[in-house]
Structures are given as structure tokens and as C-alpha cells.
Amino acid sequence: MNVEAQIWQAFVVCVSAVFTQNILLSYFLGLCPFIGVSREIKSAFGLGLAVIFVMTTTCMLNWLAYHYVLEPLGLEFFRFILFIIIIAAFVQFVEMVIERYSPALYLRLGVFLPLITVNCAILGASLFMLIRNYSFIVTVGYGLGSGIGWFLAIIAMAGIRQKLANERIPQGLQGAGITLVIAGIMAMAFIGFSGVLQGR
Amino acid sequence: MVLSVLIAVTVVSSIGAGLAAVLTISEYFLSNYGPCQITINDERKLTVQGGKDLLSMLTAEKIFIPSACGGRATCGLCKLKVLEGAGPLLPTEEPFLNREEKESNVRLSCQVKVRNDLKIEIPPELFAIRQFSCRCAEIIDLTYDIKQFRFELKEPKTIDYIPGQYIQLLTPAYEKNSEEVYRAYSISSDPTDKNNIELIIRLVPGGICTTYCFEYLKVGDEVKINGPYGNFRLSDTDAPIVFIAGGSGMAPIKCILHQMKNEGIKRKATYYFGANTIKDMFMAEQMRTFEKELADFCFVPAVAKPQGDEKWDGQIGLVTEVFRRDLKDATEYEAYLCGSPGMIDASIKVLTELGINKDNIFYDKFE
User: Fold this and answer.
1) Around Cβ B178, how many Cβ atoms within 10 Å?
2) How close is the nearest chain A Cα to the Cα of B49, in Å?
3) Cross-chain residue pair B91–A111, CB shorter than 8 Å
4) What is the pTM for the complete model shown?
């Protein structure tokens, strides 16, 4: 496939990852911080941005590590361990860099970075890109799209929860309960996008 | 097969090691913030290498801030006022601070990173907490299971504390104990003698530190203590006082009595001291001396079970029964209790029945 076609495919994959194949609402990955940090829009925004950044970059790094290290050596079965190590190390590194050079950004994003290390959506995106045999350029689009999709979902959820804060919710449903119900309804709403794009 | 396993393991571990090395090297360069100055209470200035959290920096400078979790933001004990240079409040700190604390710049010192010059405020009593190396100067048998230890301070040479406070004694590793532990003991000595502290310690069967003190510690040995800690102290009112203590609970009360004598405090005070048998009674002589030296002080020793031929002409019964008979109405009193949890809980119950205001009961439970 030539580069132009790949870029077009990357765009399509990116848009579909945001809407039709949303990593959170159709695969339900990364639910833990989704429920934990969606109480207010401000912190959801910070976490969402951090996820976009980390997901895009770790997908790229993991693609390189898989295709240039594991595949030539025939060690594909090690991808789980290696991906986790790479994600953890990269997140640590980024945390140190932005803490040093941009205290303002650190206060906005930095505190969420350690949380992302254990966000399964990040690892999930890296594994999906392998299963689907994406090329490097398409992987960039996929990582970015998945990140944006997660970002959109948590922002929407935080907006809904802020509105709900003053409503009377039955006691048994308060907190995580109502959040999961809302997530389910949001997932159904996102199915509406499925006709928009065919293919990946 | 073996070869491929070897290759696999080598590759994955070398990638892991490589990443770890990159992180270590970049931490060395990135987390080095150069010298930062910490100004404490507008008087003391420390110059430290920036990059770590405030709590560990202060500990390295021998300023001990209480902390139970070791810097993981789970105990909320290491609160300090950071007036300048801390940056905004972190989400990790938020759950531990109420609105008043947030407004007055209170922070968790384990979460505040030193990246630039800081201005902080440490409560004077925390500021006074130091590590002391001392020499065991004297051991006196008070009863068959209670000893008085005098420690002469070597470095630093003097200690300032509020009578009623305690120190922590470091028990080194010895035959029956594999790691160093700290145990808290109230200071019993005269606070004017800043070069020495005395502790009254009762042997706890199987206790790590008390066994060390009773069986291993000899006059001349080096020991390490840190402190002072604690809020048990004489209030600043004129209300009549009732002291209630048992066993080694004598220590902080004795220290407070020294203070009353030194500062010429003329408050009416009664001291009920409970012992199980006559053999458990000690320091009665010294208390009689206090009766002569203080304006209005009365020592009431009570023995629960006088046995054998020994003569006992004092009060008989549990200390709670004795002061219930004696005091009758405790409405006006302030109570200072010190001893075992059982004794303290029982005393609080009786004092409440005698009409004391709960806010006027101060105690130091030896748990």
C-alpha cells in the first residue's frame, strides 16, 4: 500500500476509533479511571488529555518494539510483558520531563500520569493494533483516535455526573452504580454511529 | 529449546534493564533542581538539594515530622504550613485537609516537592523534636518490676520539653529482637535539668524494649532517643487539680509536680496513686517532700490488696474507689490521668459520675 492510501486509512481508522469502535464504550476498557475520575469536568479533561498523549505514543513505541525486536527474534509471545514494561517506563519518563520543564502542565496532567500506567485501555489499544495488522502510519491514527474516543467519553460522563450531583439518586445506585448505568446508555447511543463508517 | 528460552529471557530482561537505566540516568539529570533554600519559621534557613519531597528533606536535616505511612499520602499526619513556593494543592492532598487548613496553606509535607525556595512554618513543639545520643548514667530499682533510668544527653547536650511529654527510646537489635524499634516513655525528671532525662519503666513480660532495658542495658551504655512528643500537659487555668496515676504512670505526673514547684504554681492539687500491693508502691517519700514544697498539694497513695505482715496505714482499695470516696464532687476539677488503659477508662467513668466536665479530663494512655 502506498503512503497516501495509508494516510487515508489512518484517518478512517482514527474516526472509527473515536465513534464506532470507541475503546471505552464498545470494548469497555479503561473503566476504572473512567468511573474514578469522572466526578468533575476539570480533572476528567486533564486525565483525558494525558490518555490521548500516552495512547498515541505508546502505540507507536510498541509497534516499533514488536516489529523490530520481538518479530525478528520470534518472541511474539512476550508482547504482553514487554508492552507493559514499555508503557510504565515511558509514562515515568514523561512525568519526569514535564515536571521539570512545565510545572503548569505537570499540575494539570502530571498527577494523572501514574494512573495511566495501569489503564488497561492503553495496553488494549497496543494489542488491538497487532491483532488488526495495522501499519505504522495507521497505528498512529488508531492510537490517536482511541485516545480521543476515551477523552470524549470521559468528558461526556463528567458533564452528566456534574449535572447529576444535585439530583436525588436512589441510595443503592449512588456513585459507581449510576455511573455504570449511564455508561451503558452512552454505549447504546454510540451504536448510532456504527452506520457512519464501514470498515476500520 | 533451551537456547530459545535463554534468548527470550535475555532479550526481555535487557530491554527492561535498558529502560531502567534510561530512567535512572534521566532522573539524575531531570530531578536535580540545584540548591534550594527552606526558610523555617522565618528564622532557620536550610540549604538542600532540590528534587525530593519536603518530608524526607526535613528528616535528613534531623527535623522530625510525625508520619506513619512513610510518605505515601495515606496517614495525613505530616501536615505543615507551606507559606511560599509549594505550588497548587495536589489531588492526593485534598482528602486530608479541611477548608480551614486549605485556606491557611496547610499541606502534606510528603507530597510537596522541593523544586524552588520554600517558606514553611513548623509548630515549635515539632521543631524541637530531635534525635539525641545519650549515655545511660544511672539505673535505680524502684520496685521489683519498675526501674528509673537516667540518661545523660551527649549530642545535642540539652533538651527542651513541656512537662508531661514523652520521648521515644530506640531499642537496638539484641538476642531476642532482630530489628530496631522505638518505644515511647514519659519523662519524669525535673525539667530544669536540661542535660539529663529520667524515665520510669515497668517491665512488661516479653516486651521488646522493657526486656532490653531491664536485662541488657548497663550504666555507661550508649542509647538513642528522639522527642519530645505529646500533648499531655498542665493547662493554664486556676482550677483545682486531681492527678490519678498507677505504676509507671507516675512519670509525667512527677514531671508536672516539678514544674509546679519550679514555676510557683499555687493551684490546689490532689494526687491519687494506685498500687496493687504494698510492694508496688514507690516514690512516696519524694511525694511527701512535694507536699511540703508545694502550696496546696496532697498525695494519696492507695493499695488495692495489702498482704502479709507489712504495715500499710494509707488508703485501701482501688484508686477509683478511693477518689470516689474522697472527692465526692468533681465539678470544678481538672483531671490528669496517666497509666494503663483499663485504669484510665475506669477513672473517666467515675469522674464523669462525680460531675466533671469531659473537656477537663486530660490523659496519657500507656498502650
Assistant:
1) 9
2) 15
3) yes
4) 0.57
> Distance between the two ends of chain B, CA-based, in angstroms?
61
Q: What percent of chain B has pLDDT over 90?
A: 38
- Identify the helix (H) or strand (E) that includes residue B263: helix B250-263
Distance CA A34, CA A29 (A): 9
Q: Which of A65, A81, A93 sits opposite B26 (nearest CB)?
A: A93
The tens digit of pLDDT for each residue in B82-99 reads 998 888 888 778 888 888
For cell 491514527, the residue is: A141
Q: Which of A74, A133, A43 is nearest to B11 (CA)?
A: A74
pLDDT (tens digit, 9 = 90+) per residue, B338-348? 988 889 999 99
B261-284 burial code (b ≥16 CB/10 A, e <16): beeebebbbbbbbbbeebebbbbe
Predicted confidence at residue A111, as pLDDT, reads: 67
Higher pLDDT, A36 or B284: B284
Residue B282 confidence (pLDDT) above 50:
yes
* Residue A93: count of CB within 10 angstroms of its CB: 17
pLDDT at residue B61, as a whole number:
83
Omega before residue B88 within 30° of 0, cis? no
Helices within B280-333 (DSSP H only):
284-293, 319-327
SS3 A128: helix
Tell me the C-alpha distance between A163 and B343, whole Å. 54
Whether the per-residue pLDDT at B200 is higher than 90: the answer is yes
Cα–chain center distance at A26? 12
**Would you call A93 and B115 a contact, using CB atoms and an 8 Å cutoff?**
no
pLDDT at B314: 84
pLDDT of residue A200: 45
A99 and B32 Cβ atoms separated by less than 8 Å: no
Give, in degrees to the nearest 5, the angle at Cα B199 between B197 and B201.
165
A96–B87 CB contact, under 8 Å:
no
- Predicted confidence at residue B240, as pLDDT, reads 93
Q: State whether B91 and A69 contact (CB < 8 Å).
A: no
Q: How many residues does chain B have?
A: 367
> In angstroms, what CA-CA distances link B227 with A141, B220, B324?
60, 21, 36
